[in-house]
Structures are given as C-alpha cells and as structure tokens.
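> forwarded from #structure-qc
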C-alpha cells in the first residue's frame, strides 16, 4: 500500500474527507497549517502527540518492551512448565515456541505502531478499527483490574523481598506504597526521567540474569541424567505448559501506549518491539536451559524457587541472597515500566471525553499526564491494601487475551481500508510512501496468533469458569459507564492540548 502526502485542500471536499476519516492520508502543512511532521496517519487529526514530548529513543523503547515482559516470573516460572512436560527438550521447546508466538504478536503491534503512532496504543487501535465503546471497555478493565491488579501483586512481592534483604520491620503495604510513591514522583518529573529510570532498572535486570546464567553454567554443575520418562509426548500436557509461558511473554504491547512520546515512532517503535521481544526470548530460553541443566527435569518440577536453587548450588547462601535482590530489582523495574506506559491509556480516554477531563491534563513543564499517573498509583495502593489482588488477577486472565486477539484483528480492518483509499490515491497521480513495517506471513501468522489467543481464553473459561464469569461481569459493567460518559458529549480529540510543537 502506498500513501500520498498531499497539501490540505478545501475541507469541504468529500474525497479528501473520506481519506482522512479512514486515516489513510498524511496532511502536510500548508496555507496557514502548522501540524507536526510526525502527526499520526490514521484516525482523526489530533494534537495529542504535540502536547506530550517525544523524548524516548530506540534504546528506551527496547528497554520499555523488555521491562514490560520481564518481572519476577523468569526466576520462578520454569518449574511450572517442568510440572507439565517432563524432558529437557520439551521444556525448552515450550519456551522457544512461546517466544515465536510472542514475536508474532510483536510483528503485529509493530505494523500497528507504524500505521498509527498515537498515544494509548491498543486503545487507539480498537477505537479507530471498531468503536469507541470497545476501546473504552479495554481502558476500563485495564485501570480497574488488569494493570492495577498486576501492579498491586508485584508491589507486594517487591516489598517482601526488600524487607527480607534489609531486615526492616515495616508492613508490606507500607513498603509497597512508598515504592509506588517514589516511582510515581519520578515519572511525574518527565518522560525522559521516567524512561532513564526504566532503562537503568532494565539493564540491572539483564545483568542479574546474566549472573544467574554464568553462575549456573560455571559453578552449579550438571544434574545427573534422569531415567527415561515413560510418559509420552501429548498435546494436552504441552498445551498446559504453554499457558504460563504465554503469560510470561506478555507485556510487550504496553510499549505502544507511549507512541506519542517516541522519537520517529514509525521506525523506532517497530524496531524496539522486535528487538525487545527477541532479547527476552534469548534470556528466557537461556535461564530455562540453565535451570534444566543444573537441576534436571524432576528436581526442577519439585522446586518452587528454581533460580534460588541454582544460585544456592553455585554460591551458597550468598547466591540465594543475590536472587532475592534480583527479584526485588526486577519487580521494581516492572512497576516503573507500568507507571511509564499505562497511564497514557487513561489520558487518551479522557482526551476523547470518555473519562474525567482532569485525567487529560498535561503538566506544562514536564509534559506528562500527571493526573493519570497518580490515579493509577492510588488505585494500585487501594488494591494492595485490600489484600484481594491475587483474586482480582484470576478474574482478568481471559480478558487480557480476549483484547490481545481482538486488537490483532484490527490489522485486517486497517488493511481492508487501504483498498478504496489506494484507488483514490492512484487517481490523484501521487507517488506516496510505504508503511515501514508489515507483518511477515500475514494473514496466516495473524490468524494463528488470534487463534492462540482464542484458545487461551477458551481454556481459561473451561478451567476457571467462576473467575472468568466474574471477569466478564466486570467488563460488561463498563457499558453503562461508557453510555454515561458518551451522553455528556465528547470534545474534539486533543482539544485540551497545548498549541506548541513537541520538543
């Protein structure tokens, strides 16, 4: 598909309006217009990206992608997989296959980012492809349970490991609240400050994982070969092993939330997505291999703290302490990434007139949505105080993958809209420009990704019907809320924006 750059004509022209409404024409400044050169090419013409500051480069984006995926799970999840499949080859195959699926998703989100580098990422894609109501429901469950429930659980995990290391006698929730407050302050100081903090924590994660791999490879030894396992390969057990693997690889999509704050997003977002997911696949597979090599499949399945067990073999109690510190750093990095990215969705909702208008406010000095960031932190602390974060997480498993699959299908919608627009562009005689990133193997790879998401949703409903029912009830409860906000009247998107250009 080729896109034309045209000088803005008379807005009354029907042909021009039809192209802009589909988001298939990029408007170039002319006749008194002063749009930013990086204005999104899909959706309504907005100023959202110009009220936020583009200060995140390719390295920052890559670290955001990796930081959204890697939490504490990498140090724990290998044993869950080993309980389902029982040979080294099967265990590693699960992690490699999960990585391939994650990479397929990254390619889909990379094309979406190249097509529509708007603030809110997934929210914006659902809004433009389907309906604002569907986008609102995604933002609704993201704020209420998906993002904040996960953050509450991770913040308590951080608090417990931090207190174990420090020996301080303070309540878990107090430590968690202080950590969230500190990270909130950092992210309110500007996207560059938040990005640098996130990048520093992500580099520390990579160093910790590298130390685990080196320690396991050099000093932990090699487990004795296990006797032949009589249990034959079957797709049922492999499928059960894939569920925790797929969840472990989730999180890369949050990088698209900050599209309006990325320098040259049509290039840097797609590249960062692919590079970040590939990096995580390498790290995850290597850690799993080290755990299998040092412990063996049987011992790995029997321990709930495989990384700690490996480092204890390599360096005794100091090794176990090192892993505790690594988990604390990793969880803190996840919280930092969550505060950097997800509030942009609530900001976009408010900017569309579908949420409290104050949430769309951007600090004129730091150029970040301060109210949205604080809102997410406060609600996370409330959930952490309630002590129901683990139960809440059980409610949203199916919804998370429901929106994964639904968002992936927007590729078909946007590509379908290219057909009539391409005819209009050809009739105009323009040369146009190509989309920078396209999904390899589309539509086959996209269909497979959507099918896997549907399988995860169906499997979750089958295994946990009560939790899934509650989760969908929370989702549907957002419909009357959407109706209420939409009746108030949506202001033109970007109407609260500053008029200056991005720095």
């Amino acid at each position: 598909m080729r896109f034309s750059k045209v000088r803005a004509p008379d807005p009354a022209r029907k042909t021009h309006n039809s192209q802009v409404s589909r988001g298939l024409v990029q408007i170039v400044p002319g006749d008194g217009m002063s749009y930013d050169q990086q204005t999104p090419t899909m959706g309504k013409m907005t100023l959202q990206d110009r009220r936020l500051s583009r200060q995140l480069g390719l390295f920052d984006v890559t670290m955001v992608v990796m930081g959204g995926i890697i939490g504490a799970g990498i140090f724990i999840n290998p044993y869950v997989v080993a309980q389902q499949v029982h040979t080294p080859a099967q265990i590693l195959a699960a992690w490699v296959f999960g990585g391939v699926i994650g990479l397929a998703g990254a390619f889909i989100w990379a094309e979406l980012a190249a097509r529509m580098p708007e603030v809110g990422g997934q929210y914006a894609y659902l809004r433009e492809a389907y309906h604002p109501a569907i986008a609102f429901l995604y933002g609704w469950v993201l704020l209420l349970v998906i993002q904040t429930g996960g953050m509450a659980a991770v913040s308590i995990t951080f608090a417990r490991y931090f207190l174990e290391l420090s020996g301080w006698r303070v309540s878990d929730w107090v430590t968690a609240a202080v950590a969230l407050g500190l990270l909130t302050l950092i992210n309110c100081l500007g996207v560059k400050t938040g990005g640098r903090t996130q990048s520093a924590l992500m580099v520390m994660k990579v160093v910790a994982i590298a130390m685990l791999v080196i320690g396991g490879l050099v000093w932990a030894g090699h487990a004795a070969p296990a006797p032949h396992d009589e249990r034959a390969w079957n797709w049922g057990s492999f499928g059960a092993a894939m569920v925790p693997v797929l969840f472990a690889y989730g999180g890369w999509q949050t990088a698209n939330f900050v599209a309006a704050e990325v320098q040259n997003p049509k290039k840097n977002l797609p590249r960062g997505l692919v590079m970040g997911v590939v990096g995580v696949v390498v790290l995850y597979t290597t850690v799993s291999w080290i755990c299998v090599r040092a412990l063996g499949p049987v011992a790995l399945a029997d321990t709930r703290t495989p990384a700690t067990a490996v480092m204890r073999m390599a360096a005794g109690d100091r090794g176990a302490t090192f892993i505790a510190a690594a988990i604390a750093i990793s969880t803190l990095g996840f919280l930092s990434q969550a505060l950097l990215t997800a509030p942009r969705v609530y900001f976009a909702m408010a900017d569309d007139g579908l949420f409290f208008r104050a949430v769309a406010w951007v600090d004129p000095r730091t150029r970040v949505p301060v109210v949205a960031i604080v809102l997410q932190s406060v609600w996370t602390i409330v959930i952490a105080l309630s002590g129901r974060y683990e139960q809440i997480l059980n409610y949203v498993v199916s919804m998370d993958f429901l929106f994964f699959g639904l968002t992936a299908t927007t590729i078909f919608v946007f590509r379908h809209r290219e057909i009539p627009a391409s005819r209009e562009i050809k009739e105009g005689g323009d040369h146009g420009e190509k989309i920078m990133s396209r999904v390899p193997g589309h539509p086959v790879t996209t269909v497979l990704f959507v099918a896997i998401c549907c399988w995860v949703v169906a499997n979750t409903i089958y295994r946990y019907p009560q939790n899934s029912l509650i989760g969908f009830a929370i989702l549907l409860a957002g419909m009357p809320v959407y109706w209420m906000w939409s009746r108030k009247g949506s202001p033109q998107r970007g109407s609260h924006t500053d008029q200056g250009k991005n720095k």
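QC bot note: Strands lie at 2-3, 5-7, 26-28, 433-434. The two ends are 31 Å apart (CA to CA).
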